[in-house]
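Sharing a chain and its predicted structure for anyone who wants a worked example. Both blocks are below, sequence first, tokens second.
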Amino acid sequence: MGRALRADAERSVRAILEAAERVLAQDAGASMEQIAEAAGLTRITVHRRFANRQALLEALAVSAKQQLLDAIEDARPASAPALVALYRVTANVLRVKSSWRYTLSHAATHTSAAAALWAEIDAHTVELLLRAQGEGLITPDADLEWTRQVYYALLSEALDKPGADQDPNAQDPDVLAQLVIDTMLHGAGPRG
């Protein structure tokens, strides 16, 4: 019986977090009551899971960052050539980022859990960039910390690509991954 309650509680938390993402994306000042309504739950249930709005925002940040980390690890970046791994990681991360745009683009109080997840994401990214550098995809003298920052910026910009609302394929994570990797590795210059 405790197991069913646990699964039920997990479903409630997931429904609250997903509803919060949708509602806050539309209205950053939305109330806990509005989030509860969107989740199909009572306000009491939401407050039982999250004592206040700040606790909900912190849980959103942790959940989104955990999903990013899972997306990176699901791509199995260590088991493929660096270029293949970069594409896999990029497409997976873009899928997560497109689902959690509000949470991942708004600064929230970083709990130690969120900060630890972000540090792990950064470490995985730099490790992959180091492999790419070792395989000759990135110049030997490139500043990998700067490259990581540029990569993150490209990921964010890809989701806001002009004209994307007119072309349904423009938001395809695989198409965007190709654009991000090509831009990161080749810039706007000719390939050669």
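Comments welcome. The radius of gyration is 19 Å.
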